[in-house]
Design a protein that fits this description.
3-stranded antiparallel beta sheet; about 290 residues; elongated; mainly alpha; disordered C terminus
């Protein structure tokens, strides 16, 4: 017989102060699944626009002094522009900036001017090095930015787990832990909403497993490529090996939460289950 860790009157979690009854909790704008600031979708096109405009703008500034500046110095200044674009934009933006910079160098600063032709071997070498260095720098900048994002994301995941564990130890209400985990799942998995269902299982919705995988019926779902299925996904919660309830996840179309995020979601649900189980034990002993 299923134990009841929550009083019958508490089976349905009360709406949190941030959630109006009957409405799905919305994601906090401007934050990713780890709580770090998310990049706006327009940053991609803007970065590509900057990759084209920035080398052209520098050439426009330097063009009146073309006869008095060595081409090697011009190439170095263009590399600085490529580095700036690569640091602020994506890898593709840095690569585009490197190509545009090399073309601008050829067109404006090598003889014959305003033609895509180079008569001097030294200028040809400089143009080739400009392109190669620009591409290499864009790759390095993209990799450094990726490592920084991973570090921020990992720190955010650990903070969520630590905060939930602290709340589970200190909370005197099972609903407090459930509400906390529910809100964290919404942000972590980029959900439209999430609800907690206490007790028996109904239906056979897609399921988020303990290893972070998604199962739809009897088949494995490629969540790393497709994201969550376009229907509610259950995340079961256990306490001391006993089924307590489940979180029903409402996916956002197009969102693809990482496997790491899904594993953290499973961990948070396990913490909530352990908290509910421990809160139930004193009442049972009494």
């Amino acid at each position: 017989m299923l134990r009841s860790p929550i009083r019958p009157t508490d089976r349905t979690p009360r709406p949190s102060p941030r959630q109006h009854p009957g409405r799905r909790p919305a994601r906090r704008p401007g934050r990713n699944s780890s709580g770090a600031t998310a990049r706006h979708p327009a940053h991609g096109p803007l970065a590509l626009l900057a990759a084209v405009a920035a080398p052209l703008a520098l050439c426009a500034v330097l063009l009146p002094f073309r006869g008095g500046i060595a081409n090697t110095n011009v190439a170095l200044l263009l590399v600085v522009v490529v580095v700036a674009v690569a640091a602020l934009g994506r890898r593709s933006a840095g690569a585009v900036a490197a190509v545009v910079a090399a073309l601008c160098f050829d067109f404006f600063f090598t003889r014959p001017y305003e033609q895509f032709a180079i008569s001097k071997s030294a200028d040809l070498t400089t143009a080739a090095l400009l392109l190669a260095v620009g591409l290499a720098v864009s790759q390095l900048a993209a990799r450094a930015r990726r490592f920084r994002v991973l570090a921020i994301t990992d720190a955010g995941y650990l903070t969520r787990i630590r905060d939930t564990a602290a709340l589970a130890r200190s909370a005197n209400s099972a609903l407090t832990v459930v509400d906390q985990v529910r809100d964290q799942l919404v942000e972590l998995l980029q959900l439209r909403g999430c609800r907690f269902e206490y007790g028996s299982l109904l239906g056979r919705p897609p399921r988020l497993e303990h290893d972070g995988s998604i199962v739809v019926g009897q088949r494995s779902w490629d969540a790393d490529r497709l994201g969550l299925p376009d229907e509610d996904v259950e995340l079961r919660m256990f306490g001391n090996g006993t089924y307590i309830g489940r979180f029903m996840l409402e996916p956002t179309p197009g969102a693809v939460p990482s496997r790491q995020a899904r594993l953290v979601a499973v961990t948070l649900a396990s913490q909530a289950g352990a908290a509910l189980d421990s809160l139930h034990r004193p009442a049972k002993a009494a």
